[in-house]
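Async update (no meeting this week)

Hi team, since we skipped the sync, here's where things stand on the single-chain job. The sequence we agreed to prioritize is pasted below, unchanged from the tracker. I ran it this morning and attached the output directly underneath so nobody has to dig for it. Comments welcome in thread, and please keep replies under the output.
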Amino acid sequence: MADTSDFRNGLIIKFKNDLYTITEFQHVKPGKGGAFVRTTLKNMRTGRVLDNTFRSGESVDIVRVERRKYQFLYREAVGMVLMDNDTYEQLTVPQETFGDADKFLKEGDEVELLLDEQEQIVTAEAPIFVFLEIAETEPGFKGDTATNTLKPARMETGATVNVPLFINQGDKIKIDTRTGAYVERAKN
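Output:
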């Protein structure tokens, strides 16, 4: 059993019957009273962030996870079909496992699954940035770069992203899958 002295950023612990990753921690030794550890925890399943204080030396359950790379093949009604890059074994993962990032995945993209000791999927991570082609948007006009106005654009995967007015149909853009926001036009 581990304790608070083992804390480090990125460590995954079992807390309140759920899995959390430590995003920040700070050991505090006040002038009066016992030492404690202030932490910021992120829920692995929901993404919710929680602040918690542990007494110094308090026992915690550390969960060992393994990251495996998979290739996204296609969508089904029951989920998303992925292929293990090493064994070529296919598995179906519910779309909720990816959060909102699933709508930005296209066939052939590489994703990571985090698996616990029992080979159960803890969470799935899409690439942080993806490059997608715009399938449909209103045409842009010359000189539409002065204002910070955005227009909706439908991507090749079916997702809708707000883009600047100078972006046209057929352009490739870079999208942040965590927020679903336009980042920049892809460089050719």
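Quick observations from my side:
The chain has three domains: 2-62, 66-125, 129-185.
The longest strand covers residues 18-28.
Reply here if anything looks off.
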